[in-house]
């Protein structure tokens, strides 16, 4: 079954030993997103006021599970979530139970406990989410979650969670695998490494004329172009000068990550552009094997200064000596 990854790591819920007395779950069926073609089935919609929707947006904006969703999918998530008010000492989920809902915290303090002795392993303080593992992997609840204070949660039922999250992750992986297959420098990666890379990519869109990165800024990641054209420009005395035009299947932004220096050029969307964004920590984790290919490609960049050239050449020599 498909798992959702970020930078090669699965999303987290408190983990415990998987129950010696584990009973068969009523949710033991598998979900195959590739075989699920039902996009037009009934969707859960819970009406919300503008104020409620705004609060919900604030609660989910930093949830890793939702980070790869596009705008339409995110709206479907917001529509499908319902409010759940809790009182202090209420049990939200109990270890060993079947999974019914996924929860996002808006307010309140919640404690996670595991084992027969109910060992306290984690405290959620007015933010975070829990309950995804049982839904993703068809397992009983891995921990007990109890409200320490009064609070408010947003919940999504299991069926909607699996359809939106698993199916969107599957589609994203397939789409990005096709994109990455067209990038020559990634040919040396194994299939599973490309899958991990595909799972770590974040979709972003930029309107015509919009600046994507700015010369001199600190680097936060690199970009693979899905659709559209990107103009690479450098600042000179007479103004910005275009030095390269990039298209689908090409990438940019890696120079600052490799050299650990500010952006050497700016990038602009020539038309409406879709890119797949790879964050710095994921870049370092997932693309180490192709660093030498990147370094060789950088030798052709015309806009780097002598100190950066020296750094690139030294890095290339280090890579070559390691290969030998």
UniProtKB/TrEMBL annotation:
InterPro entries tied to this protein: cAMP-dep_PK_reg_su-like (IPR050503), cAMP_dep_PK_reg_su (IPR012198), cNMP-bd_CS (IPR018488), cNMP-bd_dom (IPR000595), cNMP-bd_dom_sf (IPR018490), RmlC-like_jellyroll (IPR014710)
Leader sequence residues: none
Classification via PROSITE patterns: CNMP_BINDING_1, CNMP_BINDING_2, CNMP_BINDING_3
SUPFAM superfamilies (alphabetical): cAMP-binding domain-like
Sorted UniProt keywords: cAMP, cAMP-binding, Nucleotide-binding, Phosphoprotein, Repeat
One Pfam family matching this protein: cNMP_binding
Domain Cyclic nucleotide-binding: 65-182, 185-304
Family: Belongs to the cAMP-dependent kinase regulatory chain family.
Protein name: Cyclic nucleotide-binding domain-containing protein
Source species: Aedes albopictus
Lineage: Eukaryota, Metazoa, Ecdysozoa, Arthropoda, Hexapoda
